[in-house]
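Lab meeting minutes (informal)
Scribe: AK
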Amino acid sequence: MNNTSKNPACKAASGTVITGKWHKESYRILKELGYGANGYVYLASSTSGLVAVKISDNSMSITSEVNVLKHFSKVQEYKLGPSLLDMDDWYRPELGITVPFYVMEYLKGENFIHFITNRGDEWTGILCSQLLMDLNRLHDAGWVFGDLKPDNLLVTGPPPQIRWLDVGGVTVQGRSIKEFTEFFDRGYWGMGSRVAEPTYDLFAVAMVMINTAHPNRFPKEKDGPQQLKRVIQSTSSLKRFEEVLLNALEGKYKTAIDMRRDVVYAMSRASSAMPVEKKKRAQVKQSPPVKQVVPKNHQKRQTSKKKKSKMGFIETIFIFVFLLLAYVFYIYGQLL
């Protein structure tokens, strides 16, 4: 399911200019960004700046992905995925064929795993709670993400926000999953079917969380479900989410919101416990309070400064009163 499209029509070298057959917009290929079962994605320059271009030999797949992006545009305030900018055909005279492509917003950000590695595992729950909220909107619209994995997630910001990169695996609920990656696929682990339903995505979210703690992933053993349980229980950063992860892996959550509620609860429970531990450590290490000793000379200087300040204030008042009386007598003398 993850084999790259073999058709050379989908390949484009750096410097290649793609011009749409119908809209006549041109895009200069800069470099390859990624690939999937249905084509290649490239970074390209255009008259409006940098964009991402996906080329595929599968017109039905292109149409399906474009429809998903159009749906995203209707809820763009949530910024689920990249904005759709253009869709057209590219005629390749050297091959004598026409291939479809579409153009989308180029998202700048940081790889999901890299972000958490650089900033700390406490971000796992925060970002996954965002992801679950977005998945809930997708599920309510009748879709399933399908090929959910860190490679298809980007963290933009500030503030940090999850964005989806590749919607090639998005599938209408009730159908068979179009694309999947084995490590995140419940069928691979023997824990469910590949029918597109919310529980399929929630299994993948649990595996994404496991992947943050094990960036290199690990091969499946014979007892796959028990293996995942052992990994969770033996990893400190995952132990606090143990109940949530096991429920998601076993398909016990009906909606993404249900899973998100438990993720948030697990985070709040962990954060409330942390200050107590720190306080105990601080009490053990804390030394008796040291009474501050002020030198006598310093005390004398402080007393002298206060006296001088007080005398200065009295002198100022005296001078002010004297000048006021002198002015009154002067006016009185002028009147006489």
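Next up, CB showed the second protein from the same session:
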Amino acid sequence: SAGIGAVTGATAYLITQQAQQAREIEKMATVAQVSVQQIQALGYASEQFNISGENMAEILKDVNDKLGDFTENEGGEFADFMENIAPTVGLTIEKLQELSGPDALIAIKTAMDEANVPMKSQIFYLESIANDASALMPLLDNQGQKLF
């Protein structure tokens, strides 16, 4: 009887934990503007480069936040990129706003590659846009092939 009670309690705990984890994943997906399946896949891809899925979601949240900040007041951490790099390759804030978090990051990395921005400067811009975003650079190369 005691064993059955312990198993029942452990099962209830695991179900509660899984439900909480599912809610967290759904929340991360919403903030990153991607589906639950896509945030899980992005988390898996980023973990191959020692970036947790949670950290990946934070990076994507930062990107969306900084895009919104620039859209509202044309300032913030996105300003340098939008003034120095984006115009040289024809990338606009409107175009970036249409993209999901991962696609926006890929567009930003692609724009810097097309503008021949040196690697150290790319790191500066990515870190300005989102903390730890430069760690995603290998995933963002070649239109995000490794990321997706």
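CB comment: The two ends are 49 Å apart (CA to CA).
No objections, moving on.
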